[in-house]
Amino acid sequence: MDTVEQVGQVKIIRRDSLSGILPNLQSLLELCYPKPPKDVFYRVLEQYKTGFPVYAAVRKEEEIIGFAYLCPNSKGGTLETLAVHPDFQGLRVGSKIVEEILKKHLGVIQITTRVPIFFEKLGFKQVFTLPDGSHFMICPNFEV
Ligand SMILES: CC(C)(COP(=O)(O)OP(=O)(O)OC[C@H]1O[C@@H](n2cnc3c(N)ncnc32)[C@H](O)[C@@H]1OP(=O)(O)O)[C@@H](O)C(=O)NCCC(=O)NCCS
């Protein structure tokens, strides 16, 4: 486990598996995604594969207050399941997680999201709007 960034009392750590964080992750995702379909935690369990980079924001005694993972592909990857605990939203924890992912993973980073303004501030561009109203966005993330 690497600590990659420190934001006040919050550390951003990177792992290559979900082992050890599952109970904490379930409660975090249920708090962050309260509306239907409410199955975000179970979708992570189905879709996450060991080795995919996991980024977590942790505070005292390893309590997880932020999470995202990257599903890699040959040209970059898809950022999945970004979530920040409601008590810690607005403190740049979500931005720090995304910035760490962009720092560590070059290529075209994709996201499908309902919060396009948040991602635009981090360099993502909208490509199109899906029929369900969510936004497909990309961040061309290359060394200059
Ligand atoms: C969206 C989310 C990850 C943002 O994390 P956060 O740590 O609260 O955001 P930050 O403090 O880093 O915000 C950075 C900037 O984005 C803006 N922002 C944050 N959430 C926003 C939202 N929902 N809509 C519009 N702008 C938003 C902030 O106002 C801030 O703007 P500023 O730089 O001009 O001050 C968090 O609110 C969350 O987990 N929400 C519930 C789950 C969710 O919607 N996840 C995203 C799915 S892809």
Automatic annotation (TrEMBL):
Sections of the chain in a coiled coil = none
UniProt-listed InterPro entries: Acyl_CoA_acyltransferase, GNAT_dom
Q: Name one Pfam family in it.
A: Acetyltransf_7
Record domain N-acetyltransferase: where: 11-142
This protein's name: GNAT family N-acetyltransferase
Q: Which organism is it from?
A: Phormidium yuhuli AB48
